[in-house]
Amino acid sequence: MVPALAPEVAARLRRDPAGLVAAIVQQHDTGEVLMLAWMDEEALRRTVTTGRATYWSRSRREYWVKGATSGHHQYVRSVALDCDGDALLVKVEQVGAACHTGTRTCFTDVIFEEKDQ
């Protein structure tokens, strides 16, 4: 039997109406923000149990393990819950691109950047 998510952790999760919590994914050693994904309690349980980042796809309505089809794996180093319980910080060792477009990070379109004076 696979262990359930610790009750004290599950109790602190503040889910949206769909039962999801935002998961901010960051490269563990550089702090680079890689992507934003979604987890429910089961995705979080799978992530902490296997050490492989597992998310809920809102469009496909199914679980997906990052890298299972692309080979761009995320090996989880730590998971932290924010102070409100409505976001997770997942620190990973990213192998290959994090973004489905093939870029290292999903945050490539800069819409504001302060200019040096």
TrEMBL record:
GO terms for molecular function: magnesium ion binding; phosphoribosyl-AMP cyclohydrolase activity; phosphoribosyl-ATP diphosphatase activity; zinc ion binding. Transmembrane segments: none annotated. GO terms for biological process: L-histidine biosynthetic process. It catalyses: 1-(5-phospho-beta-D-ribosyl)-ATP + H2O = 1-(5-phospho-beta-D-ribosyl)-5'-AMP + diphosphate + H(+); 1-(5-phospho-beta-D-ribosyl)-5'-AMP + H2O = 1-(5-phospho-beta-D-ribosyl)-5-[(5-phospho-beta-D-ribosylamino)methylideneamino]imidazole-4-carboxamide. Its main location: cytoplasm. Gene3D superfamilies: Phosphoribosyl-AMP cyclohydrolase. Coiled coil: none annotated. Residues 35-108 form the Phosphoribosyl-AMP cyclohydrolase domain. Its cofactor is Zn(2+); Mg(2+). Mg(2+) binds at residues 82, 84, 86. SUPFAM superfamilies: HisI-like. Keywords: Amino-acid biosynthesis, Cytoplasm, Histidine biosynthesis, Hydrolase, Magnesium, Metal-binding, Zinc. It holds the Pfam family PRA-CH. NCBIfam families: PRK00051.1. HAMAP family: HisI. Homodimer. In the N-terminal section; belongs to the PRA-CH family. In the C-terminal section; belongs to the PRA-PH family. This is Phosphoribosyl-AMP cyclohydrolase. It comes from Rugosimonospora africana. The gene is hisI.
